[in-house]
Amino acid sequence: MVVPDPPYPFDPEPFELATGQELYRVHGKDRDGHAFNPGMGTPTRFAFFGDPVVPILYAAETWQAAIAESLLHDVPVTGGQLTASAYANRRMSRLRTTRGLRVASFMGLGLRKLGVTADQVTTTPAAEYDRTVLWAEAARRAGYDGVAYMSNKCNSDRAYAFFADRCQDAFEPDPAFRWNFSDPIDGRPALITFCSRFGVEVLIR
After folding, report:
1. What's the confidence (pLDDT) of residue 205?
2. What is the per-residue DSSP string for 93-157?
3. What is the pTM of this model?
4. Low-confidence residues of the chain, pLDDT below 50?
């Protein structure tokens, strides 16, 4: 499926997040839960773009979707193994929005308004990321705080990509929630329990 150029003018359906909305994200243990990625790592569906690069923060509405979109992203749906190197230096944080946010809807009728389908923007293979990122850039240029879409790996839940220059101050980590995946007491056992439901073996070393 060909990824088209974003329409111009870019007029997406807005999706509103209220103050106090809970979100989940998986990130490196050496980074704060609400820290935006300044451009490190390989390209993703909606990052990176801009000169200078616009930092991005990915999050999901559930912890299950956050794991599916990160730790399990490249594990076959038929099952497989999650290596220790894939999770040992990562953890999950729960964030809360400190103000309302307005993001572009890349889901449901929001896709119809833009004249595209999910398989043209939000469920494409990684080989198309150089094209799908143009849609995030168009949303930012149109003044949106980020984009909302249905998680490709957990398509019952919403996922988000937020733009630092629009909403870097709009998140605070919840100090009552922290999930270190390598913690042998409760972090790793909880991960093993979750992954086993889907035929994924979590390797210890």
Report:
1. 85
2. EEEEESS-EEEEE-STHHHHHHT--HHHHTS--GGGHHHHHHHHHHHHHTT-SEEEEE-SSSTTS
3. 0.96
4. none
